[in-house]
Amino acid sequence: MKMTARGSIAALLTCMAAAGAATPAVADAVPVGVPLDAVKTTLGVDAPRVATGVPVPMVGAPEAPRMHTGELLPAPLLPVVPVTMDLGHTLVGAPVPNLAGRPETDGEGSLDAPETKVHARTPGAIVGAPLSMPDGSNFGIPNVVTPKLGLSAPELVGTPAALLGLR
User: Fold this and answer.
1) What is the DSSP letter of 75?
2) pTM (2 decimals)?
3) 53, 88 in Cβ contact below 8 A?
4) Are 110 and 164 in contact (CB under 8 A)?
5) Cβ atoms of 90 and 107 closer than 8 Å
6) Which sign does the torsion angle of CA 65, 125, 152, 117 carry?
7) pLDDT at 38 over 90
């Protein structure tokens, strides 16, 4: 093997090792500043300030279906999937001119919502077969039964809060 081939393979292995060792940074929420500067130039009024974070949903492992005694199909047939996300810190500030009818009382209104975690679970489908288990009294032939069909309820759990202020 030539020296150039060995060098190329060594460089390739070094790059692969560096790429494998580097762990990607996972963001809980992506900060976003909403550009509203054109409002002031277009309309001639002071523009509000809006800064927030776009949530990045993190999907968890779906729940495994479980077999129950006397049932032909597992429940739930369509598994429930958990999703977790962080609602980013949101700050909205807007000028409030002539609050009491005088220019000295100019102020600013603000809405401040701190970061909060939200947990959600998708609905799952529960389906029952239209046949029963094999029946020994019927020569092992299954009986026809009313099929089951249902959905498990979706869940959304979080504690969002906000503070409304005036300065």
Assistant:
1) B
2) 0.59
3) yes
4) yes
5) no
6) positive
7) no
